[in-house]
Amino acid sequence: MDSWYEVLTACDPSLNVVQSITAIAFDPYQELLWTGNDKGRVISHFGDGLQRYTSFRSHLSQVRQLLVSDKGVISLSPDSIRMTNRRGLVRWTMSNEDTSNLHCMAYTTIPNSEILAAGKQNNMLVINVARGSVVKKVESMNEIVVMRKSRLVCCGATSGEVILRDPNTFRVEHRIRAHTGTISDIDTSGNLLLTCGFSVRTMRPLAPIPFYSGPCFIRMHPKLSTTVFVVSRSGQFHVCDVGNVSDIHFYQANTASYINAFDLSTSGETLAFGDSASIVHLWSDRKGSKINAYSGNVELPAVPSPAPNVFIGEDDPLSLIGMPYYREPLLSVWPSNMMFEVGNPPPKIDPDIMNNMKMIDFVGYAPNIGNKKRNQAVRWSKKKNKAGTPKFRSEKERELQSGKESKEPINLFEEEAELGAIGTRMPKYYKRVEIKYTLCLITKSHIGSSCSKENCLCCELGFLFRMLEDAVGRNCQASNFLKAFSTIPQAVALDLFEPDKPDEKSPYSMLIQSFNRFILEQLHQECNSDNNPRLLKSLPLEKTSLSVIQQLFGMQMISVNKCQCEAETERNITSFVVDLNYSIKNSKDKHTAPKSFIDILRSSIRRETQPKAWCNNCQQYTPIIAKKIPKSLPPVLTINCGLGTSVPLDYWRSLEKSKPWLQKRISMRLEQDDLIIKELAPDAVVDTIPDNELESGSKGPWYLFNDFLVRNVTEQEVFNFQGLWKTPVVLYYSRIDITDLIDISALPSEIDKSILFKDISISKHRLTNNKTAHLLTPEELPQPGTLVAIDAEFVVLNQEETEIRSDGTKSVIRPSRLSLARVSVLRGEGPKESIPFIDDYIATSEPVVDYLTEFSGIEAGDLDISASKHTVVPLKVAYKKLRLLLDLGCVFVGHGLKKDFRIINILVPSEQVIDTVDLFYSKNRARKISLRFLAWYLLRQDIQTETHDSIEDARTALAIYKKYLQFKSEGIFEEVLEDIYNEGKKYNWKPIPGAFPAIRY
């Protein structure tokens, strides 16, 4: 303590006039020194030489105090408080009627999270550092000018009193009369409180420390608990021990003005003074002093990389240089009235023509040498000159967005279709299941199935088709079906997924055909049971064991294998798909091109091959003759066109448009072992079609499913495959009398209602006293129009993938994938109003990358059946409950239900949805109001204070809807809505917990 000396002085060179330093503070986390001046500017200095690190204007008036936290620096002026990060970016600013004539601030019991600010005003403010909002107001009977935090919050008043407050409750514990005049500074160390020496432990004054220069600043040494630094405005300071006041060391700072601020570093090795001449004086007691014992790294600006040297040759394009950012039109952008078509140079005339040419006057003529057709000319292009004229919106090529824009309904200005479409923004899937939707049979077969298998495609298809029936032309998502499909090991083994990076060479036609064959086999396995319904009226009783898929799509055949040794084996098989075979053997065993579609179809069904196989009679591998003989024809004939990269499309494109190769109607019958095909009706043709398809003609029975767009097309377009961009993939033929052939009454038509009355949970450790839902009773079964409140929480399975384009805009390549984690449904009316009857956590086998605990309340382990203490159910069980409530006609009340229903993958008609986010929305305002703010303003309740709870959110939305009905009945709703927007703007849409606004309703 005997060797304190001045290390250096520093002054901000950017200041044009002298600005007095009014606040100074060492950074306890990094090697930085912060200063604030009387013009509101905050400056930080870095390193031993006090180089300027950052400098920014924080307030309009003087900075009275600085507090440094791990997130940034908090500065206080008489009328505002602001927090910025260390680079000067503003985190929050508080300036209102509560911040008037502030003088000081200090941390409470929660360091870096909460501060207490006071001054010459009636209330002390408790401020949340993270949000920058006042969480509590404490009444103050004194004018506080200085404050320090120790075991208690010590407040120095202008009256000379020191008020000691409890840092938790802010209740006054003691009042100490320390001086007759105002207190200029205080500090604490353990149980010592220094104004001029007062013990908090014994509550009696110690011996005063004389300082005739007039003490203005006091700091206790951070490591030597009884050592104190006392500083006067003239620059004189001394260091002494409060237990031995005779041992005093005097020092004088070399300043020509007055000292306005003083601080001591956390290491106790450095002192800093700030004077009224804008000069910082740095003192130390050793060489190589540090501000903190352990400091973090200071973030330094990145060194800009030098511009690369670009060498441009005569053959290099100018695009190698790139385009600079510009705000005005470039010189190269010429207006359309100055652009002219100069045309291509004329083609060179054949030398043979020139040699035979004869001239008459200035006109030459020559005989046709045979390489040109007579009376022909190049057709004039019908394209309009579009220079300087933008396209109509209906003509423009559109890119499907994956961000927030893609979540809204899509309108492409096309004619309205009564069929729903399935959106394509699903990762790694090319499947189009609309083709099964037109049949409607599988839908009705599985909409009421009670299947215990978690990932059952039959059930998911039933839910999907029911959603498509309700869509009425709207875009739907098949996320639940595709999620279940991705869990099937056979689908993964067959590689039925879209490539990670698809291109024009991706074999989509083969993938679709493989999927078509797989889905029928899979549906047959899943829906086959001991009690299969008799779907076909003409089905013999001995064949009632056939599954629904076999009855509709199955072709019963006999496979005959005959060896050269005359040994013959037969077995019965069922084929769901016919693969077209484009090669037919004639009597001379040579391949000839088939002449008609009927010939190819017949040879593909009744196929004969000569593979090598094992013969049990010969006991060796030998060539055999394999035949497949059909024994019964299905009501629906499924055909894979078999067009891969190696098979030409000449058969489909060779004939004239008026005589298409594909037959619209064919007749098929079996005569003994022979198959005769003449003329049925193709129900669907699946084509890979690009965006620039032909315009549709008059309306007819044919519809084109093009991604999310459904269009009515002409029959001519369906059977015309002349374009190279149009490739037939799958055909469906159905019997003309199929509606009379099928008994639909044999199929279940609705979901079992008892699922609402059953307590279902697959959690192994569910606590019996942790059941939050009270199940419905049969007497409470909802009726059409029954109100229920709903809310759902979600977790993230895949994060969003984005890219930054060359123009600096952000493009979403693949949106984040959310999964349902919890759904709660409450009674909306009756004696048990607001009591939940569904509160299910959804089990997930996929890894969760983000539980979104702050917004969902879901924590790790809540969705794990082996660890969760909640009611955990499979996704299908929760979905069945919601589907049943929808079918029963329930009206769902909630907040922001559009997103909830989209992720749940259920389509609810608008007449069955009451969304409070839309009820309390003004078209004249751009903002939609949060549930938390509505609850704070209308219900005077604080919700979502720490995390979200779906029961609480659903109950709150229901109460807000009841308020809406009240306001509507009283005729004051528009007035209330306007007041909500005004108050929201006033509070920056951030509710203040416990401080509810005064309302007139």
Automatic annotation (TrEMBL):
A divalent metal cation binds at residues 791, 793, 900, 953. It is an enzyme of class 3 (hydrolase). Keywords: Cytoplasm, Exonuclease, Hydrolase, Metal-binding, mRNA processing, Nuclease, WD repeat. The keyword Manganese does not apply. Its cofactor is a divalent metal cation. Positively regulated by the regulatory subunit PAN3. CDD domains: PAN2_exo, Peptidase_C19. Its EC number is 3.1.13.4. The keyword Protein transport does not apply. It catalyses: Exonucleolytic cleavage of poly(A) to 5'-AMP. It is found in: Cytoplasm. Belongs to the peptidase C19 family. PAN2 subfamily. Forms a heterotrimer with an asymmetric homodimer of the regulatory subunit PAN3 to form the poly(A)-nuclease (PAN) deadenylation complex. The linker, or PAN3 interaction domain (PID), between the WD40 repeats and the pseudo-UCH domain mediates interaction with PAN3. Contains a pseudo-UCH domain. This ubiquitin C-terminal hydrolase (UCH)-like or ubiquitin specific protease (USP)-like domain is predicted to be catalytically inactive because it lacks the active site catalytic triad characteristic of thiol proteases, with residues at the equivalent structural positions that are incompatible with catalysis, and it cannot bind ubiquitin. It functions as a structural scaffold for intra- and intermolecular interactions in the complex. Catalytic subunit of the poly(A)-nuclease (PAN) deadenylation complex, one of two cytoplasmic mRNA deadenylases involved in mRNA turnover. PAN specifically shortens poly(A) tails of RNA and the activity is stimulated by poly(A)-binding protein PAB1. PAN deadenylation is followed by rapid degradation of the shortened mRNA tails by the CCR4-NOT complex. Deadenylated mRNAs are then degraded by two alternative mechanisms, namely exosome-mediated 3'-5' exonucleolytic degradation, or deadenlyation-dependent mRNA decaping and subsequent 5'-3' exonucleolytic degradation by XRN1. This is PAN2-PAN3 deadenylation complex catalytic subunit PAN2. It comes from Cetraspora pellucida. The lineage of its organism: Eukaryota, Fungi, Fungi incertae sedis, Mucoromycota, Glomeromycotina. The gene is PAN2.
